[in-house]
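Hey, can you fold this one?
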Amino acid sequence: MAVYGENATKALSPSPSNIINPGLVGGRLRVSVDTYEAASLAAGSEIYMCPPLSAGAKVIGMVLSYDALGSGVTLKVGDASDNDRYFTAASAASAGTRDNILIDAIGYEITSSTEQIIITTGGAAATGTIKLVVLWSQE
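Sure. Predicted structure:
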Protein backbone atom coordinates (compact mmCIF):
# COMPACT_ATOMS: atom_id res chain seq x y z
CA MET A 1 0.00 0.00 0.00
CA ALA A 2 1.35 3.41 -0.95
CA VAL A 3 0.94 6.41 1.32
CA TYR A 4 1.82 10.03 0.65
CA GLY A 5 3.37 12.80 2.70
CA GLU A 6 1.48 16.02 3.34
CA ASN A 7 3.05 18.02 0.48
CA ALA A 8 2.97 15.06 -1.95
CA THR A 9 -0.78 14.80 -1.31
CA LYS A 10 -1.26 18.52 -1.94
CA ALA A 11 0.74 18.30 -5.19
CA LEU A 12 -1.47 15.45 -6.45
CA SER A 13 -4.69 17.38 -5.85
CA PRO A 14 -3.91 21.08 -5.99
CA SER A 15 -6.59 23.55 -5.00
CA PRO A 16 -6.69 27.07 -3.60
CA SER A 17 -7.24 25.63 -0.11
CA ASN A 18 -4.13 23.45 -0.06
CA ILE A 19 -1.39 25.49 -1.71
CA ILE A 20 2.07 24.18 -0.81
CA ASN A 21 4.24 26.65 1.06
CA PRO A 22 6.95 27.66 -1.46
CA GLY A 23 9.55 27.66 1.31
CA LEU A 24 9.03 23.90 1.76
CA VAL A 25 8.78 22.74 -1.86
CA GLY A 26 10.74 24.41 -4.64
CA GLY A 27 12.16 27.13 -2.39
CA ARG A 28 15.60 28.66 -2.75
CA LEU A 29 18.05 26.94 -0.43
CA ARG A 30 20.33 29.37 1.39
CA VAL A 31 23.33 28.80 3.62
CA SER A 32 24.98 30.74 6.41
CA VAL A 33 28.24 29.68 8.04
CA ASP A 34 29.74 31.15 11.20
CA THR A 35 32.70 30.40 13.47
CA TYR A 36 33.46 31.28 17.08
CA GLU A 37 36.82 30.74 18.77
CA ALA A 38 36.17 30.16 22.49
CA ALA A 39 38.87 30.91 25.05
CA SER A 40 37.79 29.81 28.54
CA LEU A 41 34.21 30.80 27.70
CA ALA A 42 32.14 30.46 30.87
CA ALA A 43 29.39 27.85 31.14
CA GLY A 44 26.01 29.46 30.44
CA SER A 45 27.44 31.82 27.82
CA GLU A 46 25.38 32.58 24.73
CA ILE A 47 27.08 32.75 21.34
CA TYR A 48 25.03 34.60 18.72
CA MET A 49 25.76 32.84 15.43
CA CYS A 50 25.04 33.87 11.82
CA PRO A 51 23.12 36.98 10.85
CA PRO A 52 19.43 36.78 11.82
CA LEU A 53 17.34 35.03 9.16
CA SER A 54 14.50 36.93 7.51
CA ALA A 55 10.95 36.53 8.77
CA GLY A 56 9.31 33.71 6.84
CA ALA A 57 12.52 31.69 6.42
CA LYS A 58 12.05 27.94 6.91
CA VAL A 59 14.92 26.18 8.70
CA ILE A 60 15.85 23.03 6.78
CA GLY A 61 18.86 21.87 8.76
CA MET A 62 22.01 22.72 10.68
CA VAL A 63 25.47 21.32 11.14
CA LEU A 64 27.25 22.04 14.43
CA SER A 65 30.97 21.17 14.55
CA TYR A 66 33.37 21.75 17.41
CA ASP A 67 36.81 20.97 18.76
CA ALA A 68 37.23 19.06 22.02
CA LEU A 69 36.06 22.00 24.14
CA GLY A 70 36.92 20.59 27.56
CA SER A 71 35.74 18.05 30.10
CA GLY A 72 32.10 18.54 31.05
CA VAL A 73 31.34 21.11 28.31
CA THR A 74 27.95 20.87 26.60
CA LEU A 75 26.44 22.79 23.68
CA LYS A 76 22.83 23.38 22.70
CA VAL A 77 21.39 25.46 19.87
CA GLY A 78 18.21 27.46 19.89
CA ASP A 79 16.93 31.02 19.98
CA ALA A 80 15.68 33.54 22.55
CA SER A 81 12.28 31.86 22.93
CA ASP A 82 13.52 28.22 22.97
CA ASN A 83 17.19 27.77 23.83
CA ASP A 84 17.28 24.18 22.50
CA ARG A 85 14.90 24.46 19.55
CA TYR A 86 17.43 22.90 17.15
CA PHE A 87 19.84 20.81 19.27
CA THR A 88 19.42 19.74 22.89
CA ALA A 89 22.46 19.93 25.19
CA ALA A 90 25.06 17.27 24.46
CA SER A 91 28.67 16.73 25.39
CA ALA A 92 31.35 18.65 23.49
CA ALA A 93 34.23 17.19 25.53
CA SER A 94 35.44 15.40 22.38
CA ALA A 95 35.60 16.94 18.92
CA GLY A 96 32.49 16.21 16.92
CA THR A 97 29.78 17.15 14.47
CA ARG A 98 26.01 17.07 14.97
CA ASP A 99 23.59 17.38 12.10
CA ASN A 100 20.43 15.78 13.46
CA ILE A 101 18.28 18.79 14.39
CA LEU A 102 15.13 18.04 16.36
CA ILE A 103 12.18 16.84 14.30
CA ASP A 104 10.00 19.85 15.21
CA ALA A 105 12.79 22.19 14.07
CA ILE A 106 12.68 20.90 10.48
CA GLY A 107 10.63 23.44 8.56
CA TYR A 108 10.42 25.78 11.56
CA GLU A 109 9.37 29.22 10.30
CA ILE A 110 11.30 32.23 11.54
CA THR A 111 8.71 34.74 12.72
CA SER A 112 10.84 37.86 13.21
CA SER A 113 13.81 39.26 11.33
CA THR A 114 15.48 39.82 14.72
CA GLU A 115 15.26 36.14 15.74
CA GLN A 116 18.87 35.16 16.42
CA ILE A 117 20.30 31.62 16.43
CA ILE A 118 22.11 31.09 19.74
CA ILE A 119 24.55 28.42 20.91
CA THR A 120 24.56 28.06 24.70
CA THR A 121 27.47 26.49 26.54
CA GLY A 122 27.03 24.47 29.69
CA GLY A 123 28.84 22.39 32.27
CA ALA A 124 32.28 23.99 32.26
CA ALA A 125 34.40 26.65 30.56
CA ALA A 126 34.87 25.99 26.82
CA THR A 127 38.05 26.46 24.80
CA GLY A 128 38.26 25.74 21.06
CA THR A 129 36.56 26.31 17.73
CA ILE A 130 32.79 26.10 17.25
CA LYS A 131 31.27 26.24 13.75
CA LEU A 132 27.62 26.38 12.73
CA VAL A 133 26.13 25.91 9.26
CA VAL A 134 22.48 26.89 8.87
CA LEU A 135 20.43 25.76 5.87
CA TRP A 136 17.14 27.50 5.20
CA SER A 137 14.64 28.14 2.45
CA GLN A 138 13.22 31.55 1.67
CA GLU A 139 10.68 32.69 -0.89
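Residues 59 and 136 are 4 Å apart (CA to CA). Let me know if you want another pass with a different chain boundary.
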